[in-house]
# Entry
Amino acid sequence: METTRHFVATVYVVSDGRVALHEHSKLDMWLPAGGHVDRDELPHEAALRETREELGLDVDLVAPQEAIESETVRSIPQPQHFLLEDINVTAEGEVGHQHVDFIFYGRADSRDIEPGPGEQPADDWEWFAPEDLRGRSDELPSDVVEVGQRAIEAVREA
# Structure
């Protein structure tokens, strides 16, 4: 059976040494902001759009960007990580589909979350310090704990 893959973009939004996570209603797990890359979008554009929609925040991406340009090419902001994620895994271990995830880090000047229409309410979001991530590792996916800590450190150093 052929595996269907979707391109998605995720942003670990950091403000004052804490990262924003919410318990995703469909996937029933704690995750950062993110979603599918639209057909007319580049990954970093989708990351910024999803952050605006879900958190109501404009962020500065902490993303390397090469200085390669010519008449036909230009560099775009690079994600910090590329992850391949199995989605809708059955009890028999069959994968429903996969996400090719462009993971970005973003710096926010505010923690005032104001989700757009149709998004999860602001009360569903929490700001996690590194010790919160480690202390709740029993309920947070291990990759979210690790990448969340890396995002906090990267934003602090940027």
Observations:
- The two ends are 44 Å apart (CA to CA).
- Residues 142-157 form the longest helix (16 residues).
- Strands lie at 5-15, 18-24, 29-31, 33-36, 60-61, 81-89, 95-107, 125-128.
- The chain has one domain: 5-157.
